[in-house]
Design a protein that fits this description.
CATH superfamily of the largest domain: Spore Coat Polysaccharide Biosynthesis Protein SpsA, Chain A
Radius of gyration: 21 Å
Order of helices and strands: HEHEHEHEHEHEEHHEHEHHHHHHHH
Strand order of the largest sheet: 3-2-1-4-7-5-8
CATH topology of the largest domain: Spore Coat Polysaccharide Biosynthesis Protein SpsA, Chain A
CATH class of the largest domain: Alpha Beta
Shape: globular
Largest sheet: 7 strands, mixed
Helix content: 40-55%
Structural class: alpha/beta
Number of domains: 2
CATH architecture of the largest domain: Alpha-Beta Complex
Number of helices: 17
Distance between the termini: 46 Å
Length: 416
Amino acid sequence: MYFDSALEDVTREQLKQLGEQAVVVGLPTYKNSRTIAAVMTTIAEGLVHFSPTRQGLIVVADGGSTDDTLALANEVPLPAGVSRLVYAYQGLGGKGSAIRSIMEAAEIVSASACVIMDADLRSVTAEWVERLTGPVLVGRADLVTPLYTRDRHEVTINDLIAYPVTRMLYGRDVRQPLGGELALSPRAWRAYLARDVWETDVARFGIHIWMTTLAINSGWPLCQAPLGTKTHDYKDPTVGFEPKFLQIVGTLFRLMSIYRRVWPQISGIIEVPTWGEVQHLPPVPVPTTRQSLWEGFKKGVKRYRRNLNVILTEEQRELLSRLLEAPQPFFDPLDWATIVCDFGVVYNRGEGDPDKVALALLPLYYARKAALLVQVEGQPWTAVDEAIHAQADVFLSVKAHLARRWETYLPWHPTH
């Protein structure tokens, strides 16, 4: 069923009754009862402290929580000048639909800035509100993305796929293109809302990579907000990860085709400015994931072996065999970058099911992440970010290979 709005009529009327609000902070929620109260309290503090003369509105866009998320969100004491609206969005179930509803809310109340934050945050501070809204309110940016450190054991698809691929393709060094904390100008959210994408994976976890890519290719001014470190509710990174991986990687690869006449012409990297001092804070540790990643790799290869045999070149299939026989994880960054690019080509140029192509990359992603953990074992947390930046440079070095494969690839006939 198609919905021309992510807001029900009753919610739209409630927003109209609230009147004009300068800043809207939206929280997409789904079973976040453990964190929602603290997150809302901190956001309210930020709105009052950094925008004392502006009206602020916190909207909670819920995706069908069956715990106490909604009750707690309605009961959190808020200071004067900060309003709230808690509602269930409509449309495809997913984060993108929740964000769509938040952007619609910002439009209805004539906001000057719209902020999105994850509802499971444990590291949010009041300063985050100013760091995110500041560049938008002074006209310096249409999209603000976050800068923060994460623990090395987080399964950050951002670091090994979204960041290096986006940087390589479009030439802008947006460090967290999948960051859950961002701020938008009215021009940005109106452009997003006008796109006919809300029945696709953009309505789910494909939302952030789509928003970042559209902003870069629209030529909007961008900014990054230093937020220190990000900690949220920990989840086993290999349990139930397939849908999220598919939605993110599938959207990333589809965008390669949409902008296929753009990215081959781009060379070099343009830095994205930051708003405020960059704080290099050590991340809060999370449980080790290396063993579960390596096991996920081996199980995934068995599951997707048929697809991998078609997608990978002979040389890459030999590499896969060596990986499976290795006593501990290893995966050269150059091999990884080349394989990701090849998967992007097959996803768009092959004759098979694109979703199966994207999912077949998942076990290799697990292997690369496990290998990175081996690489930085015993080193300080700063070594992780250095490795991620080095990996991004390797991706840039294989861009010519990507362009050649894109033009010469024969569908579903691996190179020998």
